[in-house]
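Progress note, sequence design subtask.
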């Protein structure tokens, strides 16, 4: 068989529709792999804002609805939108830190967060003429540093969960620490001894095991579940009309740029995996779908969406190339989004259970950043400075939350109180200043020539 014949068969496999039983099984597999990451951002924001369980459950329903819509746009395609490859979408972890910072400002609230999300979606759509040049500003050094910062700044969230959650009266009680340690131990054991699909859903297995332990201990309570309707529809602007705050929108636009570059690496990687190289036109359709999904998300009460790297890893592992498998996953997620009882149960998961899993999830994000940074020359002193100073800036809100209180205006809060935003700005600016003579070297032609080997593809290892 010639290489041309092999490539043709692989390309045909992208558009092939497997038999219905396999289609549903493969689709459910994708849903299981992305489930923990998909619901984590609403849970994190809900804990940060002390939102009632019913509100968090509704945010999860909104999240799942937009996730299903975004997957269908990417995999099926909608006019100029959608990469038409097996891609799973979900809420971006890069947005969590800035959103938590916004939540601390009472003048912003949920309407302000949704307004910032809409603004980021519009900003992403306006970037269309520059998509092919975007990668030159985000080499592996910058992208890897930002992803590393995302993981590092989110780890305290998982640690607080392990203690019982923000503001818990019995924070740090042995029962909370014991449950978190049990979940972590289950995940580690499954990851060590299991293989294939079971190993890929180690986090989900750990969560289920943690719930089984938390239930008899009285930590997992479903009071109010019976009152939830069986089926309910998500309504646009449920929390009121969005509000637009300059700094909040600016912070989310920075997040949007980071996620677009991260998606670029994943799109090129999945194109390589399925044998359909991604050219400029295809890449633009994919990034346009990311931006459109984020715009839709803001209107439907949820947060910026991007492609999920763990599912790209699943495609690589299973070699199931059909984009209709992810389409099936999108329809499954849409169905679940109509079931408030399911979302309420997820929102009722004890923080200690989430803590054991959160340490792994957020730590894996940091590890993925390290992997990508490794693609840069860290023996170069200038690159070392970019990484070192960016990480230092990102730790300011954690180490000294009131550092800027006496000098910074209130409107700068969403930027100065977000470690992710500070670190990302630092990485971008420092790279421009210190590596201006290397800017764009070898970045644009990779997309233009549709080369499968792309430095950011190392993000696959996040799975």
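Output:
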């Amino acid at each position: 068989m010639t290489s041309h014949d092999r490539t043709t068969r692989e390309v045909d496999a992208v558009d092939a529709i497997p038999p219905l039983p396999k289609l549903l099984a493969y689709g459910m597999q994708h849903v299981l792999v992305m489930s923990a990451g998909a619901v984590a951002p609403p849970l994190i924001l809900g804990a940060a804002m002390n939102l009632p369980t019913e509100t968090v459950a509704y945010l999860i329903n909104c999240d799942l609805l937009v996730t299903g819509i975004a997957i269908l746009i990417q995999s099926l395609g909608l006019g100029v939108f959608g990469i038409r490859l097996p891609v799973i979408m979900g809420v971006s972890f890069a947005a969590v830190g800035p959103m938590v910072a916004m939540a601390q400002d009472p003048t912003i609230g949920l309407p302000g967060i949704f307004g910032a999300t809409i603004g980021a979606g519009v900003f992403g759509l306006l970037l269309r003429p520059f998509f092919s040049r975007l990668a030159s500003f985000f080499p592996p050094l910058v992208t890897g540093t930002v992803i590393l910062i995302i993981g590092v700044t989110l780890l305290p969230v998982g640690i607080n969960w392990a203690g019982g959650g923000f503001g818990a009266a019995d924070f740090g009680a042995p029962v909370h620490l014991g449950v978190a340690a049990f979940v972590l131990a289950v995940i580690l054991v499954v990851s060590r001894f299991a293989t294939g699909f079971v190993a890929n859903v180690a986090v989900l297995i750990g969560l289920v095991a943690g719930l089984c332990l938390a239930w008899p201990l009285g930590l997992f309570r479903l009071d109010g579940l019976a009152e939830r309707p069986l089926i309910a529809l998500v309504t646009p602007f449920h929390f009121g009309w969005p509000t637009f705050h300059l700094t909040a929108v600016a912070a989310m636009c920075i997040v949007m740029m980071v996620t677009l570059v991260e998606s670029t690496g994943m799109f090129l990687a999945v194109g390589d995996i399925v044998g359909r190289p991604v050219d400029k036109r295809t890449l633009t359709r994919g990034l346009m779908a990311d931006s459109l999904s984020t715009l839709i998300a803001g209107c439907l009460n949820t947060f910026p969406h991007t492609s999920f790297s763990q599912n790209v890893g699943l495609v690589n592992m299973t070699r199931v190339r059909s984009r209709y498998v992810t389409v099936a996953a999108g329809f499954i997620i849409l169905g679940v989004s109509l079931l408030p009882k399911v979302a309420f149960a997820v929102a009722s998961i004890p923080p200690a259970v989430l803590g054991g899993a959160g340490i792994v999830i957020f730590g894996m994000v940091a590890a993925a950043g390290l992997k990508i940074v490794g693609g840069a020359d860290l023996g170069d002193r200038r690159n070392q400075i970019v990484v070192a100073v960016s990480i230092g800036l990102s730790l300011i809100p954690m180490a000294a939350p009131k550092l800027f209180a006496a000098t910074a205006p209130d409107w700068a809060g969403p930027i100065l109180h977000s470690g992710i935003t500070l670190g990302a700005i630092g990485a971008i600016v420092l790279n421009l200043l210190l590596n201006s003579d290397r800017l764009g070297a070898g970045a644009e032609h990779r997309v233009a020539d549709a080369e499968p080997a792309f430095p950011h593809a190392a993000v696959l290892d996040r799975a």
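Residues 1-8, 442-446, 448-463 have pLDDT under 50 and may be disordered. Work on this subtask will continue into the next period as scheduled.
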